[in-house]
Design brief:
The structure is a single chain. The protein has 378 residues and is of the alpha+beta class. It contains eight helices and 20 strands. An eight-stranded mixed beta sheet has the order 6-7-5-15-16-17-14-18, with helices on both faces. A six-stranded mixed beta sheet has the order 9-2-1-13-20-19, with helices on one face. Strands 3-8-4 form a three-stranded antiparallel beta sheet. The protein is globular and about 65 Å long. 49% of the residues are buried. It binds flavin-adenine dinucleotide.
């Protein structure tokens, strides 16, 4: 980039790439920097797919943000001329008074979103690949579905470049600092000045934002793809996605094209790890664990293993994101702690971070995501 950038974005996972695109589209000179290669599998944004849903059981506060995100996903598809979002519906499976079922219904009622509470018999009739014991129910959310993961990150990066952004890969940021109204970012290849800085470093946020001492925990997440014996029940053009909060634990599952396979992953009881470590591969015990859950509740979805991969969550204590301006440096904007459920929000996170970068504030309702909720003085 010949000219001094207006803004530097550290981290080009899905959040940094979405932000680089949103800022470049608003006419800013953007420099994006990532420590690793495009499409790497060391962070949180790689792999085939991610679940998207609106009747948000984590907290109703997210609903306005996810509704805006849905609109932006469709805009992204139009601008890139790519299909990235499938709305085949979602089955939120659990105990009738469990937090996922009850939370989905609460958000659905509060925001008048479509959903249906189904008994095991109704589920069996309408979703022949699903078998529920009598003590569980399912909430069908018709607007839920899945988005493509790696393809979306690529799309944001291509559109950011198409709007003039410069993206550097394999260039770790060693330090950043503020000076007067501007910022300086130093890498092994040089120093860059700009007016603003966005930090979206994912599982490495504790080190890039060491000055803040945020309570972030990185977790290793195993997931695998299986070539379903009954692909007809789990066809990715028709099948719902699944959230299963069951006695075996909390799992999510996403249908995939026949050759890619049906994806399942665990969402709870995950080991804390260091983001710098190369994670151990998915174990046979983890594959057996997945098969047990699939054979019990989604018979016919399992089969030969097509792929197994690990990925990283960055958890906050309350499992809510951190989207905010840096409490000590107003020219710096931060995004981290997506706690295993941020991907579906990536388009609107890009919009929020652009607002905070350009205007210092946003109209989006992010009050509950402020970093100050963790500050020592609180
Ligand atoms: C297995 C799994 C399943 C998930 N399922 C879902 C789902 O179904 N639905 C959903 O909504 N969400 C889901 N999520 C969560 C979602 O994927 C994440 O919230 C999201 O990908 C976070 O993106 P990020 O850009 O913050 O992090 P990352 O993608 O990790 O990006 C951070 C980037 O910062 C770079 N970086 C770090 N330090 C430096 C440095 N010093 N210098 C330069 N660059 C640096 C890294 O190289 C990395 O590329 C899932 C996550 C996982 C792991």
């Amino acid at each position: 980039m010949a000219e001094t950038p207006d803004v530097i974005v550290i981290g080009l996972g899905v959040m940094g790439s979405s932000t680089a695109y949103a800022l470049a589209k608003r006419g800013l000179r953007v420099l994006g920097i990532d420590a690793l290669a495009p499409g790497h599998d060391r962070g949180s944004s790689h792999g085939e797919s991610r679940i998207i849903r609106q009747a948000y059981h984590e907290a109703p506060d997210y609903v306005p943000l996810i509704q805006r995100s849905y609109a932006l996903w469709r805009e992204l598809e139009a601008e890139s001329n790519r299909k990235l979002l499938w709305q085949n519906g979602g089955l939120i499976i659990g105990a009738p008074d469990g937090r996922t079922v009850a939370g989905t219904i609460k958000s659905g009622q509060l925001y008048n979103l479509p959903y249906e509470l189904l008994s095991p018999a109704e589920v069996g009739k309408r979703h022949p690949g699903v078998r529920l014991p009598e003590d569980l129910v399912a909430v069908l959310e018709p607007q839920a579905g899945f988005v493509l993961a790696a393809e979306t990150v690529r799309t944001f990066q291509e559109l950011a470049r198409a709007n003039g952004a410069a993206l550097h890969f394999d260039e770790p940021v060693l330090s950043w600092s503020t000076n007067g109204d501007g910022v300086t970012v130093t890498t092994g290849k040089g120093s860059y000045q700009a007016n603003r800085l966005v930090i979206a470093a994912g599982p490495w946020s504790s080190s890039v934002l060491a000055d803040l001492g945020l309570p972030l925990e990185v977790q290793r997440v195993p997931n695998a793809h299986f070539l379903s014996e009954r692909y007809d029940h789990f066809d990715s053009e028709k099948s719902t996605v699944f959230s299963l909060l069951v006695p075996e634990g909390h799992y999510y599952a996403i249908p995939g094209p026949e050759k890619i396979g049906f994806k399942i992953g665990r969402h709870d009881s995950l080991p804390s790890v260091s983001a710098d470590d190369v994670q151990p591969a998915v174990t046979d015990d983890e594959i057996t664990m997945f098969r047990r859950v699939m054979d019990h509740y989604l018979p016919g979805s399992s089969g030969p293993v097509a792929a197994a991969l690990t990925c990283l969550y960055t958890m906050t204590p309350d499992k809510h994101f951190i989207l905010d301006r840096h409490p000590e440096h107003e020219q710096v904007v931060i995004a981290c702690g997506f706690s295993g459920h941020g991907f579906k929000f990536a388009p609107v996170v890009g919009e929020v971070l652009s607002d905070l970068t350009i205007d210092g504030q946003t109209d989006h309702p992010i009050g509950f995501l402020r970093a100050s909720r963790f500050s020592k003085t609180q």
